[in-house]
Amino acid sequence: MYRNNAYDKDLAKEMQDPEFAQQYLLNLVEDEDEPMTVEEALRMAIPRMGVTEFSRKIKKSKTDVDKFLRGERNLKPDTLNEYLVPFNLRIKVTLEKVA
């Protein structure tokens, strides 16, 4: 099976633990020096855990996941939440007053 250069066998094994996967993604998003958007963090995490394995977990086609990873597909909030299931996370949109 072909593997992306970003695939990391040891990390992929650790990412099977939902708590580890959750903390991994949160660390990317909450990094003090270079915080990532949720989408950027997913684009970093998914190849490391294995695109095929991730696709199976979220019950989406590998083609759809690949398009997202290449930036050819933007995720609607419901779909983004589906991509966050393996991390036991979901997005929450809030509205704040500016002035």
Number of helices: 6
Unreliable stretches, pLDDT < 50, 5 or more residues? none
Distance between the termini: 55 Å
The number of E-state strands comes to 0
Largest sheet, in brief, is: none
| Percent in strands | under 5%
> In angstroms, what is the radius of gyration?
14 Å
Mean pLDDT: 90
Helix content class: 55-70%
Coarse structural class: mainly alpha
- Give me the strand/helix succession: HHHHHH
* Overall spatial form: globular
Walk me through this protein's architecture.
- The chain is mainly alpha-helical and 99 residues long.
- The chain contains 6 helices and no strands.
- It is globular, with a radius of gyration of 14 Å.
- The model has no long low-confidence stretch (mean pLDDT 90).
Short description:
The chain contains 6 helices and no strands. The protein has 99 residues and is mainly alpha-helical. The longest helix is centred in the N-terminal third of the chain and has 13 residues, at 18-30.
Any key phrases for this structure?
mainly alpha
Topology:
Layout: H1 9-14, H2 18-30, H3 38-49, H4 51-58, H5 62-69, H6 77-84
Helix pairs in contact: 2-3
